[in-house]
Design goal:
- This protein is mainly alpha-helical and about 625 residues long.
- Among the domains are: about 380-455, no CATH class; about 455-545, no CATH class; about 545-620.
- About 80% of the residues lie in helices and about 0% in strands.
- Helix 11 (about 270-315) packs antiparallel against helix 12.
- The longest helix has about 50 residues, at about 350-400.
- It is elongated.
Amino acid sequence: MDENKNPEVAETISSNPVPAPQLAETTEAAEETAADAVVTEEVKENTYQETSAAVVPDTKAAVISRLKDIVIAGGEIDRAEVEMLKQTYYKLHNAEIIAARDAFVAAGGNVEDFMPAADSDEENFKAQLGRIRELRAEALQALEKQKQEGLAKKLDIIEKIKNMAGSPEEADKNYDIFKNLQNEWKEVKMVPAERATELWKNYQLYVEQFYDQLRLNHEMRAYDFKKNLEIKTRLCESAEKLAEIEDPVSAFHQLQQLHQEFRETGPVEKEKREEIWTRFKEASTVVNKRHQQHFEALKAREEENLVAKTALCEKVEAIETENIKSFSEWETVTKQVLDLQAQWKTIGFTPKKMNAKIFERFRAACDSFFATKTAHFKNLRETYAANLAAKNALCEKAEALKDSTDWTATANKLIDLQKEWKRTGPVNHKTSDVVWKRFNDACNYFFEKKNAATAGQREEEAANWEKKNGVIADLEKLLAEPVENVQQAVRELQAQWNEIGHVPFRKKEKIYKRYREVCDRIYKELHISAGRRNLENFKKNVAEKGGNELTRERNRLTNAYEAKKQEINNYETNLTFLNTKSKGANSFVKEINQKIERLKEDLNLILDKIRAVNEQIKVEQK
C-alpha cells in the first residue's frame, strides 16, 4: 500500500467541548461563567475540517509554496490547515507513484519489478514542516508569557478593587479610579486557563462589593446599572437570534464572543440581576445544546466509520495467499485489495484514539499481502530462470544431435529429450515461445532428414504389415474351416510369419497381439483334440496289459502327475515376484499363465490315465 509515508492523523472533533470551571452559585457572574463553554485548541482545529474554505493545492509544488507562505507570515498557525497540506502532499506523491508504475507496466515491465524513484521534493517539504513546528513552539512560549503577564495585571486589579470596596468612604472617594480599573480589566485578554475561573469569581465578587459600599454618586451608579442593563439586554437578544443560524459551530463561536462581552459588562441593579442572567443563560443553553448534538452526531459517524474500516481490515486479513496459484488469480486478488484501498479513502475519520491504530492495522494487512505477492513472484522468477537454463541445455543437446545419421539411436535420444522437456517446468511467457521454437526446430530438422533417408524402408515395412495381416487371416480361416493336416498348416503359416521383416513401429505391438491371440486359440483347440485321441489310444493299450505292467504304468503316471503339479507350483510362485509395471511385463505374465493352463490340461489328462489304469486293475482282480 502506498501510504507508508502518509499516516492518517486523528484530528477528530471532540463531542464534549470543555466548559469553563464553575463559580459560586450565589452570584450572577458565577452562574454566567458556569454556563459558558470555552473554545479549546482541539475544537478550533476540528472545526476547520467543516468550515474551512481553504483551497486544496493540486500539485506538490503548490503545497510547498503554501507551507513557505505560512512560515513567512508567522503569527498564529492553523494546525488543521497544515495537516491538510501534509495529507495532500502524500496523496499527490502516491498518485505520482501509481502513474509511474502504470507507465512502467505499459512499457512492458513486470509490476513486481517496479521500484519508485526517490522523491526529490520531500526534503524541502519536510524542512518547511520542521520550521512550522519551530514557529508553533515559539508562539506557544510567547503566548504563555503573555498569559502570565495578564494574570499578574488582573491580580493587581482585583487587589486594588478589594481595597477600595472595604468601606463606603473608600468606595465614594475612588469611584473614578474604579471605572479606570474596569477598563484595564477588559483590555487584558489572555490568562492561564486554569486560573480564569478563580480570577473572574474574585473580580466579580469585589466589583459587587464596591457597588454595594458606594453611597455617593447615586445618580452615576444608577446610570451605570441602566447602561449595563441595556447592554446585557442586547446581548440576550443576540444570543436568542443565534438559534436561527443554520451552522451550530458558527453559532457556538459567536456565543463565546457574547459571553465574553457579558462577563466584561458591569452589574445591573440587584432586583434584575437574576432575571437578565436567566434570560441569557436560557438562550445560551439552546445554542450549546445544538452544538453538543452536532458533535454527538459527528461522534456517531466516526463510530460508523470505525466499523466500516474494521470490516475492510478483516477482508484484507482474510485473504489466504497460500491458495493463490496462477498469475490471473494474483491479479484478481490484487485488484480486490486495490478496490478496498479505494473504499478506505472514501470513509471519513474514526474516533481520535482509534484513527491511527485502525490505519496501522489496515496498512499492515495490505503491506503483508503485497510483501507475500512480491516474494511469490520473486520465487517464481527464480524458478522460471532455472527452468529456462534447463530448457536451453536441452536445446543444446538437441542441436548437437540434429546432424547425426545414426537414425535409430539418435531418434531414441531425441525422444528421451522430448520427454525430459515435458518434465521441465514452465518459463516466463516472454521467452517460452522462443526457447520452444529453438528446441522444436532442432528435433524437426533431424526427423525430416531421417524421414527422407528412410522413405524406402517405410514402404518395405508397410508391405510387411500387409503380408502379416494375410498370415493372420489364413490362421483365422483354419479355425473356421479346419483342414485334414491342420497342425502342419499352422506350422507353415508360423514359419511364414517369422520370415516376414519389420513392420511400421507404431503398428508393431497391435499386429503382434492379433497374431498371438489367433495362435493361442488354434493351439488350445488342437491341444484338446490331440489329448482326447491320446487318452482313447492309452485306454486300448491298458486293456491289453495286466499284472505288474499295470502297476508299473500307474507308478509312472503318478510320478508324472507329481512332476507336472510341481512345475505348475513353480510357475505360480514365480508370478508373485514379477514387477508388472516394467515394460513388456504384462505380455510375459500372460504367456506364463497360458503355460500354466496347458500344464493343468496335461495334469487332468494324466489323472484320466491313472483312473483308466485303476479301472483295469479292478477288472483283473475280479
